Amino acid sequence: AEVAAARACAATVGGLLAAVRPHEVAARECAAEAPGVRDAAAVLTWHPPAAVELCGSLADGTSVSGAAVAGQTPGVDLALRMPRACFLAKDHLNHKYGDKRALYLAVVLRTLRAHPAFAAAELGHAGAGGPAGARPVVTVPPSRALGLRGPLQIIPHAGHDGLARSKLLPSRSNLRAAGDGEAAPTPRYNN
Fold first, then answer.
1. Phi-psi region of 12 (alpha: psi -120 to 50; beta: other; left: phi over 0)
2. Can you tell me the distance from the alpha carbon of 74 to that of 32, in angstroms, rounded to the nearest whole number?
3. Which of 82, 59, 81 is nearest to 150 (CA)?
């Protein structure tokens, strides 16, 4: 039942976001929804997601039974594949991808909050290290209206065609200071 509710939720999120027309999103216009943007001049051309996919342990069935035994309710993870049209050739450099992700989520958050079932949506963080070392996500608490017993986490990503893989090799330097000649590789940033 939880997987069916999660699939229905994914379809609802996909439908809501598909209705949003492509438009320019500037960091200065959505500071509250995108607090992690490093470049105040960052701009994103927003397009609806190329795909909304159920992912994580609920999708592959690996934690559902384990969570039930431990008395926990499994969360639901939805991956939003950002379309190629959201990216420029140099977005792999100097935290630009992170800024684009945050701006993308700002539109997702605004859109979902306008729907009664998602009114409690908030900006959160996924990953290790707390907000400083984590990636922004939209989180929705458990909701009877959505049929979910656990929290919903919406995670945007570039997909396979968003950023050139050759630019993300561990040997590449993607954090550059102005005027730097030969910079050191940035394997952790490139991951």
1. alpha
2. 29
3. 59
Name the one residue in this structure whose structure tokens are 């993870």.
Answer: 77
How far is residue 48's CA from residue 64's CA, in Å, rounded to a whole number? 30
Please give the Cα distance from 106 to 108 (Å, whole number): 5
* Alpha carbons 33 and 15: distance in angstroms, whole number: 21
- Does the pTM exceed 0.70? yes
Residue 175 has which token pair? 């954090």
What percent of the chain is predicted at pLDDT more than 70?
85
In this structure, how many other beta carbons lie within 10 angstroms of the beta carbon of residue 184?
8
Q: Tell me the pLDDT tens digit for each residue of 37-51.
A: 888 899 999 999 999
Model pLDDT, residue 24: 95
